[in-house]
Amino acid sequence: MSAILVVGATGLLGSDICKLLVENGKSVRALVRTTTDPAKRDRLKSLGLEIVEGDVRDRASLDEACKGVDVVISTVSAMPFSYQPGVNDIQTTDLDGISNLIEAARENQVSHFIYTSFSKNIDENFPLRNAKREVEKRLMESGLTYTILRPSCFMEVWLGPAVGFDAANGKVVIYGTGKNPVAWIAIHDVAQFAVASLDHPEAKNAILELGGPESISALEAVGCFEQAGGRPIEMQFMPMEAIEAQQAAATDPMQKSFSALMRSVAVGDPIDMSTTLQTFSIQPTSVEEYARGVLPA
Prior knowledge:
Layout: E1 3-7, H1 12-23, E2 28-32, H2 38-46, E3 50-53, H3 59-66, E4 69-74, H4 90-107, E5 112-116, H5 127-140, E6 145-151, H6 155-158, E7 165-166, E8 171-175, H7 187-196, E9 206-210, H8 218-229, E10 234-238, H9 240-249, H10 253-267, H11 274-280, H12 287-294
Parallel strand pairs: 1-2, 1-4, 2-3, 4-5, 5-6, 6-9, 8-10
Antiparallel strand pairs: 7-8
């Protein structure tokens, strides 16, 4: 049985994809760096999949990892957790590294490449967006059968304490007015679409815009958390002018990209999922359901 190579396997999305693939009886190979946290490596091993060492910045290791592989699933990014300027950053990893992976997949007769990008609505000029769109272009021109997943804002990130949305402690930061709808999506649901893309004809040579079951504003999301937790939540607003000033003052590509993503959340990212959900028979998590999981009454 041909293997499926998951690149980015130790991340939140990649590890969830690995788990789902194993549960579906697939033969899975996970690419990990030599510097990977042993605990993360052990969690992958416990799933019973094959571990191979390599790095998207090292083309030779990718050729070795792609041998005997039928499908490559890439979720890897230098942002935000492993970012090192000039070493592991948007240029070296998100652009050059994934381009290396596409070439290695093509040279080793991989039949299908599944790539995680982000929503078409996130379309202003900033480093991470530019890298992802360039990779999409290179993938579509590679001759490989491709699936490009374009998820909206991950609930676990943008409705979580890492970006100031600390509902558990009753305080959240709202970007802009908080009135523009966003198609917040759970990481597990993106993983489900990645796995479904393996065999679904509608995923072949396709771009899938992905969001939750509804597009709601940040203010409405706060309401979901207030209802789930049974108490009011204090909101602090970061005006668009402040976001744009922060973006203009940023000198590092990650800082520029993060500020631009904050602005994208403020502007809104609505996605109509009605047709896609019918096509793939996946029922994604709503913000209300997610809030109940985070803040059990």
